[in-house]
Design brief:
mainly alpha
Length: about 325
């Protein structure tokens, strides 16, 4: 089992970098998806990121060895590859049907679905703090969708299909997160990402259409490159954060990602109204988004908060 290094300040900084990069990513992807299909965009992001990592690791003589993996390790690689490919493609399909802010908010269900799965599959305990966090999160979603709640519950249009697709993307991401965490016991974060990215790119190659890149405008071409580099840096920071800080605290920090997206969309729509459309959300919806973020963070931190509270009570009782 992987154990974090305890360098919490470094882990926090890396988690914040990840949150910012993930927050601005859907704004850029939305522009690229006007020309390219989700699978091809995913192929470019993974191939470029994996190739750059391969070049770097080869130059410093640190390419990973598959001999140290064993059967279990190879199974973890396969699970991580399938999880990341599924997450990338499904997320982009959902993004084509939804706004960047809505997509990024719904993807916050990933940690919650992971928590619920752990309760049923691994018989993990469900703390009071997590219960409160989950309740706040659900209330937040109810407020966020206040303008389109009836549509969500009564029809299967593009909006509802987009929400369901992003929910599925958040579910399969959990497989990637769990597998990557365990692979850090035998490889460093850069080695893990290189292997996963290149295998993911290989997996989707038959369905990719690289020539679509020739149809991009110069601006969209630069945005695609920025998306590829974003993938490399953001997931690198995420993987390294997991190596130095507890997964629950990393997840709680990443909960602010939707707020970064909403701020990015508002700024981009103000600066470049011809390219970026502002979010069509009322004040109650934004309040709901804040509650979703708070609920997601509390759900991730629930066990730690309850353990700290019990320890404090024990110290006070001993005085």
């Amino acid at each position: 089992m992987h154990v974090s290094s305890g360098r919490w300040l470094y882990g926090l900084s890396l988690a914040l970098v990840t949150a910012v990069l993930w927050g601005i990513l859907p704004v850029k992807l939305k522009q690229v998806l006007q020309v390219m299909d989700p699978v091809t965009v995913t192929w470019f992001r993974l191939l470029v990121s994996g190739s750059l990592l391969f070049i770097w690791l080869a130059s410093v003589g640190r390419l990973p060895s598959f001999k140290v993996l064993g059967r279990k390790g190879k199974g973890l690689v396969a699970l991580a590859v399938c999880g990341l490919v599924g997450n990338y493609v499904l997320y982009l399909i959902g993004l084509k049907m939804l706004s960047p802010g809505t997509t990024q908010l719904v993807i916050q269900m990933g940690p919650v679905l992971l928590l619920i799965s752990s309760i049923f599959l691994f018989k993990e305990r469900f703390s009071l703090g997590q219960g409160v966090g989950l309740l706040i999160l659900l209330i937040g979603f109810g407020l966020f969708f206040n303008q389109r709640l009836i549509e969500l519950l009564t029809s299967l249009g593009d909006y509802t299909a987009g929400i369901l697709t992003v929910l599925l993307a958040s579910a399969v991401w959990a497989f990637y997160g769990l597998s990557q965490k365990q692979l850090l016991t035998v490889w460093n974060s850069l080695q893990v990402m290189m292997v996963i990215y290149l295998f993911c790119a290989l997996l989707v190659t038959p369905w990719a259409h690289p020539m679509e890149a020739l149809q991009l405008s110069p601006l969209q071409g630069w945005l695609l490159l920025a998306c590829c580099l974003n993938t490399l840096v953001a997931y690198g920071a995420f993987a390294e954060a997991l190596a130095h800080w507890e997964a629950s605290r990393v997840s709680a920090t990443l909960a602010i990602t939707p707020l970064v997206t909403f701020a990015s969309v508002a700024t981009a729509a103000w600066l470049w109204p011809d390219y970026v459309q502002a979010e069509d959300i009322n004040g109650l919806g934004y309040s709901g988004a804040v509650l979703v973020v708070l609920g997601s963070a509390l759900t991730a931190l629930g066990p730690s908060l309850m353990a700290g509270l019990r320890a404090r009570r024990a110290r006070m009782a001993g005085v």
